[in-house]
Structure to design on (328 residues):
C-alpha cells in the first residue's frame, strides 16, 4: 500500500498544488473581509462562480466575433482574468453597499443571513442567464492551453511513477503566486495597506486618525472579490465545466483553508489553501486504497471538513492566528 501511495505522490502534489492555489486565493477574500469587518462573507463562493461564468462568456464572445485570431493564448488568458476581476470586484462593492453596509451595526447573525441570501440570489441569476443563453446551466469551457507535459520520474527512481502536468496548471501556479505576492506587498508596504491594517485592528481609532473607514472597506471588498473572480477563470480553464453551484462547496473549502491558517491572517490563508488542496488530492487518489475499497474518491470532501472540525476544537484561532484575550 505504501509503495502505491509513493508512486502516485508526484501527480498528487502537482494536482494538489494547483487546486490548493485556487483555494488559497479564494480564501484571501474570506480572510480580508473578516479581518476588517469580522464578517464571514458566505457570498464569496458565488463571486468566484460569477468570475468563472464571466470569463467563459468573454471567451465565447471573442470566439464568436473572431477576435482571438493573432492574439497569443497567454495574453488572451490574462485579458479574460482582468475583465473577470473588474466585473467581480464591482459586484463585490455593490454587494457590500446593498447587503452589508446597512447592517453594519446589526447583530452578526443578521449579516450572516444576508450573506446567504446574496449567495442564493447570485446562484439563481447566473443559472437563469446560463439557461437563457445556452439552454443548460452546466457550461463547458473551451480550453486555451491544452498542452500536456510528461515528467518521466520512473527513469530517475523506481519509487515514483511518471506524472503529467498540464500547461494550464503551470499558468495557475504562476498567476496564483503573483496574486498572493502582490496582495502581500500591497497590504504590508502601501499607504492603503497600512490603512486596511489599522481599520482591522481598531475601526473607531482609525476613523479618529483621519482614515476613511468606508473607503477602506469598499477597497477590501473590491480586492477580495476581484481575487475570487480571477480564480474562477483559472478554475474554469483547469476543469473545463462550470455550473452555478460550484461556488458553494469550493467556497466552504476555501473558508476552511482560511480558518486553518487563521481567519484574518493573509499568509495563513495562503498556507491553509495549499494544505487543503494537497490533502484533498491525496484523499482522492488513495482513500480507496487506504480503506480497502470501502470509501472511494467521492469521500474526499470529508477530509476538508474533518480538518475544520479538528482545528475549531483544538486551535480555533488557526495555525497562524492569535488567540484574542477578552478584557474584563
Amino acid at each position: 500500500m505504501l509503495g502505491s501511495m509513493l508512486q502516485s505522490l508526484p501527480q498528487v502534489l502537482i494536482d494538489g498544488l494547483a487546486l490548493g492555489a485556487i483555494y488559497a486565493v479564494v480564501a484571501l477574500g474570506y480572510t480580508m473581509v473578516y479581518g476588517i469587518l469580522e464578517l464571514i462573507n458566505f457570498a464569496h463562493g458565488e463571486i468566484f462562480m460569477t468570475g468563472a461564468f464571466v470569463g467563459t462568456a468573454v471567451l465565447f464572445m471573442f470566439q464568436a466575433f473572431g477576435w482571438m485570431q493573432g492574439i497569443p493564448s497567454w495574453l488572451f488568458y490574462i485579458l479574460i482574468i482582468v475583465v473577470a476581476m473588474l466585473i467581480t470586484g464591482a459586484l463585490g462593492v455593490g454587494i457590500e453597499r446593498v447587503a452589508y453596509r446597512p447592517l453594519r451595526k446589526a447583530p452578526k447573525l443578521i449579516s450572516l443571513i444576508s450573506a446567504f441570501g446574496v449567495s442564493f440570489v447570485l446562484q439563481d441569476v447566473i443559472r437563469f442567464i446560463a439557461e437563457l443563453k445556452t439552454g443548460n446551466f452546466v457550461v463547458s469551457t473551451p480550453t486555451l492551453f491544452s498542452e500536456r507535459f510528461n515528467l518521466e520520474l520512473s527513469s530517475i527512481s523506481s519509487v515514483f511513477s511518471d506524472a503529467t502536468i498540464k500547461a494550464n496548471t503551470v499558468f495557475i501556479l504562476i498567476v496564483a503566486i503573483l496574486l498572493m505576492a502582490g496582495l502581500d506587498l500591497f497590504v504590508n508596504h502601501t499607504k492603503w495597506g497600512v490603512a486596511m491594517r489599522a481599520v482591522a485592528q481598531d475601526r473607531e481609532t482609525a476613523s479618529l486618525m483621519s482614515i476613511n473607514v468606508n473607503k477602506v472597506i469598499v477597497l477590501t471588498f473590491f480586492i477580495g472579490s476581484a481575487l475570487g473572480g480571477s480564480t474562477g477563470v483559472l478554475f474554469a480553464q483547469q476543469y473545463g465545466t462550470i455550473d452555478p453551484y460550484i461556488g458553494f462547496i469550493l467556497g466552504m473549502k476555501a473558508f476552511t483553508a482560511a480558518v486553518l491558517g487563521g481567519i484574518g491572517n493573509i499568509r495563513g490563508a495562503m498556507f491553509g489553501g495549499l494544505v487543503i488542496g494537497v490533502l484533498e488530492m491525496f484523499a482522492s487518489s488513495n482513500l480507496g486504497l487506504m480503506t480497502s475499497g470501502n470509501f472511494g474518491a467521492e469521500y474526499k470532501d470529508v477530509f476538508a471538513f474533518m480538518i475544520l472540525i479538528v482545528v475549531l476544537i483544538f486551535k480555533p484561532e488557526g495555525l497562524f492566528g492569535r488567540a484574542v484575550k477578552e478584557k474584563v
Observations:
- Strands lie at 139-140, 148-151, 163-166, 241-242.
- The chain has eleven helices and four strands.
- The longest strand covers residues 148-151.
- The radius of gyration is 20 Å.
